[in-house]
Amino acid sequence: MSYLHERRGAVGWLTLDRPAAMNSLSRALMRGLHAQLDQWRDDPAVRVVVLSGNGRAFCAGADLKEVSAPVAAGEPDVIDVARAFFATLRAFPKPVIAAVNGLAVAGGLELVLACDLVVAAESARLGDAHANFGVFPGAGGAAVLPRKLPANVARLLLFTGRTFSAAQMERHGLVNEVVADAGLAARAQALAEELAARSPLVLARMKRVAAAAADKAEADALRHELLEFRDHQRSHDMQEGLRAFAEKRAPVFKGC
Fold first, then answer.
1. What pLDDT score was predicted for residue 142?
2. Are residues 233 and 164 in the same domain?
């Protein structure tokens, strides 16, 4: 299956498990991850997803053996499978945390870019690296990296193929937290549990509006936010939150 999945309370963990191949993205791996996301999207018991890797790499990108191999008639190539998987990951309605345990380059960096929050081990290194092998990004490297980093920093990573340390990426705003290697899983779980205690409906709506805002004028983004607010006023979670505030207790959210 080349990945592991488990629930830790309300948190679903997806762990890339091809350590000998530095967790490179094969068709089988991406299809498996895609299917698991589809399952968890509709599972109210899973409120947050954490994505990580086994071994010394988070993900070293696409499986170049598959990229260069002939594709059988009727079989989608790697980029077609990647396009569908990454689209699902970016649009996933629940928060996704990247727990970057090691090297994240090329498609591995694109995985990080598709997540909402990033916790990285001190030893992790991140970069685009496509230029090192004459490969063009196909899952967001050139399109999304300049939206996440200052433009000149993004171009430096794209053009040179260099990797930056987790601390450097934190300074540039791509990484939210850097932690000791041994504490990565615990910190990612703690952050995920903090998010899981919030209203899943609020988080899904916030994520949707925030994702769309970058492509809208401010006035249009504010109208979108107001429409979501009007819908949200009628929700159980908002009424429960207001009751809990008045009653000085913790709210019990249902995601509806």
1. 86
2. no
